[in-house]
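Running log. JK asked me to keep both predictions on one page so they can be read side by side. First protein, sequence followed by its tokens:
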Amino acid sequence: MIVGSHVIIYSQNETADRAFFRDVLKLPHADAGGGWLIFGLPPSEVAIHSTDGAPSHEFYLMCKDVEAFVLAMRARSLVCTPVRDRRWGLLTELTLPGGGKLGVYEPRHVRPKPARTTARRRVHKRQPPRKARKAPQAAARRKRGKH
């Protein structure tokens, strides 16, 4: 049923934010036309949390080493917030060129296995097995009666 997810980040400078995802995060991408880049993401997960306020959505990227991520961003003159130790992981945020905040964290929580897609597989018709060709020497031995 579900084959993926599509996340939309609204930006006041989409060109700069697309360049950030392409050049800094080095995410694979496809051009949907006119420079409209759609980025591939690694396996993802969704969590549902309760709220007393208005329903909303949040988007975080996960990494294996948040301190290394912060250093890599610093090397590109990008500022991350100080890493905060949360029950569920180590969190930092950076400001995208378009002004939006992007949370990046090193998870401590259990990670689910990636969901299997339900895309249909091509069914190949099985070909009947080919008759094995006999090697010329084996055929000659058989004619002489030597196996």
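And the second, directly underneath as requested:
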Amino acid sequence: MIQNKYYILSLPEPALNNIFKDCVGAIETQRKSLDGKKYVVKTPENVSIKPQSLKNFQSYTHEEILVILNTPEWKNQIP
């Protein structure tokens, strides 16, 4: 099973097109925060070197990103 690494990018991100060259999936399928100011992108974990385009961003595991995506910034809360 291939494990992915996840990154949160703040928008606007000047290097966004270069970053998406290193990501899994298309730009249209990436998760955006509810306010549209952040993107979550993923790259394969089995890549031996962190892509240069993502060197300044913190990486998250699948479990870590799920916790983040379940916060009000990313998910509508049902009363």
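Observation for JK regarding the second prediction: Strands lie at 4-10, 31-32, 38-44, 59-60.
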